[in-house]
Amino acid sequence: xxxxxxxxxxxxxxxxxxxxxxxxxxxxxxxxxxxxxxxxxxxxxxxxxxxxxxxxxxxxxxxxxxxxxxxxxxxxxxxxxxxxxxxxxxxxxxxxxxxxxxxxxxxxxxxxxxxxxxxxxxxxxxxxxxxxxxxxxxxxxxxxxxxxxxxxxxxxxxxxxxxxxxxxxxxxxxxxxxxxxxxxxxxxxxxxxxxxxxxxxxxxxxxxxxxxxxxxxxxxxxxxxxxxxxxxxxxxxxxxxxxxxxxxxxxxxxxxxxxxxxxxxxxxxxxxxxxxxxxxxxxxxxxxxxxxxxxxxxxxxxxxxxxxxxxxxxxxxxxxxxxxxxxxxxxxxxxxxxxxxxxxxxxxxxxxxxxxxxxxxxxxxxxxxxxxxxxxxxxxxxxxxxxxxxxxxxxxxxxxxxxxxxxxxxxxxxxxxxxxxxxxxxxxxxxxxxxxxxxxxxxxxxxxxxxxxxxxxxxxxxxxxxxxxxxxxxxxxxxxxxxxxxxxxxxxxxxxxxxxxxxxxxxxxxxxxxxxxxxxxxxxxxxxxxxxxxxxxxxxxxxxxxxxxxxxxxxxxxxxxxxxxxxxxxxxxxxxxxxxxxxxxxxxxxxxxxxxxxxxxxxxxxxxxxxxxxxxxxxxxxxxxxxxxxxxxxxxxxxxxxxxxxxxxxxxxxxxxxxxxxxxxxxxxxxxxxxxxxxxxxxxxxxxxxxxxxxxxxxxxxxxxxxxxxxxxxxxxxxxxxxxxxxxxxxxxxxxxxxxxxxxxxxxxxxxxxxxxxxxxxxxxxxxxxxxxxxxxxxxxxxxxxxxxxxxxxxxxxxxxxxxxxxxxxxxxxxxxxxxxxxxxxxxxxxxxxxxx
Length: 837
Prior knowledge:
By secondary structure, the chain is α+β, with helices and mostly antiparallel strands. The protein is about 60% helix and about 15% strand.
């Protein structure tokens, strides 16, 4: 390092050291922002590594897995046929079925996996946590995942009852394994039982649903896949670990994107505080900078001096943030594991993530320092002695703002455009990220009006103090906007999270009301015989029972899911995008029409009146599109189910089972008693009963868990914003120390000085809250639009009570943040400050 550079950094360090309090607050803000970035990056890497481990655990040592596309599966003879293919060294069969269980403490659904005790361990190298693995001579015994067993209160030696074809049967727990298979993530526990027990107990007879294959020579993989077509007279899919990984990663992309977005926002909040601090520093030291220029310092030297200060702040804050971020990542991983069902083993650490986040923290700090550095470099001796510099700077700011307005309008138009598609989703997300800092920049032009409104109650208490506080806030509106930037962004995210949760909850209520037109819903994990419908229909208090069946169908080679419903019971259900409701249901009642979800209509370019022949097994039904609905029952293909009339499904495709029952209560029914009886009857058949409110609450809880996690990250942003207010108040009061000294000298009391500081902070808190509510509403609208799927169609919700609460909270937090600076101002020495001036 040259002598000139050492001198430059020495001056920069000395200047920062002379303002310890302000420097400390700024470093803390950068540390918190960087910590969130490090934590989110590390957590995303850890979760992705967990998914890779899960993909390998799902496939195990198999070269690939063959899966049946329906519940009929493969005959046991297929196992022998596949085993005869040249190159195949091992074939491990498996069945899988969702079933109802109960213990002394809880009940619900689990995933039953029937495995061959001798072959399956050669595919899946289980890590035993307690007890033993399954044996060939075992009967009704089970091996559970350790984590799920703990949540269910089960240990080795205990038993759980599982519904089988013979009713509830006890299965003894003989072992616990470390659970890394996430293929059934979110569906409850995985209960492994012997294949020979599972087949008769769960209605598979001699059939299997999946075959795991090992091939001796990797060069024969393609030949084996080709041979499968010859020996398996079924429709099947072939998956290896890379395909499983792709599916698992797709399921967490939204989670990773949310973490990345909030990490960026937290770092942006810290950058705003750096910009604010250095801008105030340049404004306070105009005379000093002018003197430096007068004695020969170049504009470049002065600019580099300010950048050096930003570099100091960035390096120290980012280094501390890298350490704090690792601690925060541990917390995030624990919470995600509990809420999202993604186990991450060990303490996550990503050296690349730490290095990248550190570099990003320093880079963002330097970018935030650039504008103050340029302003410092433009300072001349004449400007240091003239007030015209401020006026000229405000004029330049106004001209830049007029250029920014059309850009902002374009970004808002793109973000809120009523169009869909992956390209548009990406464009909307990018527009949102750019619009946030641009909103902060343009918010300065709303400050005069908002400051006047905020000052009204202050003037009511003390007209002089209120007027002085308002003028101080309005005098440097650009600086005020930057001061409240971190604060308003954090409050905006709180509004977005809470209103977003309300939007998803309302979508859950709408979804439940449209898809289950009744007071109560009975859900089955497997197909149930239609004869059971009568058992529910005879319960006292039941007015009507409508069964819903699901079945796989083929249209032009595309595999879809169909849902068979009773048209009369569903006449008021569904939201139509195309077609007329009465005409559409008349076509359904005649057995010639179907309803298709909008996502399928868009993807396949279908419209009302188009033919839609559907094939199930060896039978084909000729239908037309009678209507297009906004969303339908969930389906594996993410399009939503095609709605077909029940009579046609039974006559054409032989459907004699159901998955859901929509139950309407009689007008005079005792709903509480009816609910208990339905629940008891449902449990006796291995089903579960719920209400529309339960379904909506389930969706709301799932979303709320994730949003609650993100709210923790937002809280860090609120802390950063509060630090910004404290920092600004300290620097503003220090800059105006002589003015305060003069006011004290002419009679202003200490209480009035304290009131002036608190009044300024309350006005800035009000500004941040109002602007935060506005920005939060915009973010909510965009996020709700980006989250729409064929299965869930949330509508924008804006809560006035929440907006009012945020306004009050913004003012209260700002007042609390002003207490220390106000106490410092009260202790101002009158004589000393006037002498220094």
